[in-house]
Amino acid sequence: MSIASDLNGFTHLKHLYFDSHDMRDIFASQTKNLAEAIPGLVTITKFSLNQPYTVARITRRGNKQVASVEVGNGSGMKIGYEDLAFPWTPPAA
Fold it and tell me: Is the CB of residue 73 less than 8 Å from the CB of residue 52?
């Protein structure tokens, strides 16, 4: 994906959500490329008009190298944080 070089400066980026019409196998290969370029990335969710969304879950070795990319389905929210749209942001002061 062409956005990988633009995003790799975001060292704390863990979750990426985007709209795409790519097929599942293309999504999987693009996800691996993104995961290799962005060392903190844990999940990538592909939004579409229909649920469930396609989600890639990235596992890494201790040196942050990609160990595997598992493509599955999801609803777009992190389990346990359904009532918080952005649970990883610090609370307002």
Answer: yes
Going by C-alpha positions, the residue among 76, 85, 29 that lies closest to residue 54 is 76
| Cβ contact 66:40 at 8 Å | no
Question: Which residue bears the tokens 């942001």?
Answer: 89
Rg (CA), the chain: 13
Fill in the amino acid letter for 8.
N
Q: What is the pTM of this model?
A: 0.70
Interstrand relation of 43-47 and 15-19 (parallel, antiparallel or unpaired)? parallel
Q: pLDDT per residue over 27-75, tens digit each?
A: 878 888 888 888 889 988 887 777 788 888 999 998 989 999 998 887 7
Q: Reduced to 3 DSSP states, what percent helix, strand and coil does the chain have, rounded to the nearest 5?
A: 20, 30, 50
What SS3 state is found at 53? strand
